[in-house]
Amino acid sequence: MDQKRRVCVIGAGTAGLCALKNSLEAGLDAVAYERGSQIGGTWIFSEEMPKDDYDEVHSSMYEGLRTNLPKEVMGYPDYSYPEDIPDSFITSQQVLDFLRSYADHFKLRPHIKLQHEVIRVRPRLDDWEVYVWDHSTNTCDPVYFDFVYVCNGHYTEPDLPDIPGMELFGGKTMHSHLYRKADKFTDEKVLIIGAGPSGMDITNHVRVAAKHVFLSHHLPTTPNTAFMGNVTQKPDVQRFTKEGAVFTDGSSESFDHVMFCTGYKYTFPCLSTDVGIQVIDNFVQPLWKHCININHPTMAFVGLPFNVIPTHIFDMQVRFTLKFFTGQREFPPREEMLAELELEIGERWGCGVHNRKKAHQMGERQFVYYNELARIAGIENIKPVIHKLMKDCGKKYIFELDTYRSNRYTIVDDENFLKNGRAGA
Ligand code: FAD
Known about the structure:
FAD/NAD(P)-binding domain; 5-stranded parallel sheet; 9 helices; globular; binds flavin-adenine dinucleotide; flavin adenine dinucleotide binding; Flavin_mOase-like; FAD; FMO-like; N,N-dimethylaniline monooxygenase activity
């Protein structure tokens, strides 16, 4: 009898659990290594801070976070949130409970090794050599696999901008990665830089404790409705001074604390250089369809695209790659994959997005991407209702920040949803 082909999943967050479940269902012999002591990744809230320069805290979760997407689109296609949770925009603990129940429902736990950190992945002639450090025994052994799923998450390594005068500023600075509670800012004047989902939400939390918050951003439209009282919106910082900053409109402010909500970097510290993957300005390459390592197509990255419906894109990428890993589809020749990558990037640059940092940004493109994955691998696409619901939620975290989380959605069928009891658009 043929030996089962072996799959290594790095990480047991939302993406890793999905890769593990689908690999097992596809008849592969899969194991997920998780360096933490529990599953759930991002959704684990802990007040833990780094102990020294080399210590890494994984999760960027903070107290009081409620999701910026409704739970109706945050479930997996084959496993939804329980119907007895009335709210659509839920707490991090409810997401964590959901991931635990997913792991239990699909009997994943026997296949997850907690406190096992993958520290080195190296391609051999016919397989992968994976060095795994068992934190509980402090031993490190090589294990051999046919396929590798890289699901290590990408909200841990801060991406800090290079702003003139940073070294002059005499107050405190931090990145949103280590933001945990608003009370740290009691009676302070705070500058928050960046108006992505985290910057907007954290501003809304911090303003409750702080004396004043300045939110610096370059959104094309100023979100007037979202903030009241003690928040002043500012353009980009031109330069820092000892007490504060000068902004690009010539105004200046003084403050005690700066928080950078400026995003994260993709990093893959456990991949050896002969894995053939480079990250240049946050563009991970060369990848086919944003997930397959073109230099070694038996390795897949799950969840790199952003501005997406995370759980659904993870599930589609995993089902897509499994069609190839199980031999039901054949990869195109390397040159073809590279040519496709070049074409896509050329199109992106042609649309004015000549910024490598945005190479994995999706937004509206994600629906074209889903169609493509579904067509190429012959897998089920995301349901139209998920697409419609996502359209209804778009950008609400900017323009309806103070109200959107009270909306309640109900999925009626594959096409239709209700919003606050009424038919959705
Ligand atoms: P993670 O959840 O980060 O999991 C990665 C796992 O890999 C971790 O458990 C880590 O310990 C493990 N790991 C890393 N390296 C190794 C290694 N070498 N060996 C072994 N294990 C390793 N998404 C939404 O859908 N809705 C939201 O409302 C939302 N809000 C968010 C709010 C914040 C503050 C952040 C940071 C993200 C939010 N997201 C949201 C995005 C969210 O991160 C994704 O939806 C999803 O949880 C990412 O899952 P992941 O598995 O890719 O990564």
